[in-house]
Design goal:
Blueprint: E1 4-9, H1 13-24, E2 29-35, H2 38-48, E3 52-55, H3 64-74, E4 79-84, H4 89-98, E5 102-105, H5 110-121, E6 125-128, E7 139-140, H6 156-166, H7 171-178, H8 182-196, H9 201-211
Parallel strand pairs: 1-2, 1-3, 3-4, 4-5, 5-6
Antiparallel strand pairs: 6-7
Amino acid sequence: MTPIRLLIADDHAVLRSGLRMLLDVQQDMAVAGEAGDGVEVLQKASELKPDVVLMDLSMPGPPSGEVIRQVLRASPKTRVLVLTMHDDPAYLASAMAAGATGYVVKKVADSELLSAIRAVHAGRTFVDLTQSLDSSNHAIPGGARAKSEQPRDLSRREREVLRLLAQGYSNQQIATQIKVSVKTVETHRTRLSEKLGLKGRAELYRFAVESGILTPKP
């Protein structure tokens, strides 16, 4: 079995060391290199062509979104898995829009992180903003999973509101963008939750990706 080659990108050396110890003992993983800032991430990704870059969002250097985009341009087959302290859906949406295919917070269990690495390497999207979410639903396959409500059951405006919510926009920003009142947006949001049986922006984001309403850029 060819191991998953990993590049660990974080500006904290102690964290990188801990991650290396965890990953190197996995039979199906091997740490190919480490990087401590955005510039070094780009250099190492270009040289090593890792299978997965495990990347923090808060490092010195260029903005994280630009780093993700440049990594994927330099090594198109590489997958980027964000490992961050930020559990705000706006950070998630920004990272996914830049091309990341996984997003986990640093408080996840070791087993969850390993599952995320294997999922993105296998071509799936993996999202975990909080440990309270059902971990059985974290890995998102390429196509939509069966749901009690399919996207065709949503109105055009509900789909539009769902897409904007998943991208991290506030109710006020959505109201301004689609030219309706904030109260109307809140009504659409309530209906979305009722129709889909989902709670919170993170779950709405996962559904938007799964159903094809929101597709992270390759």
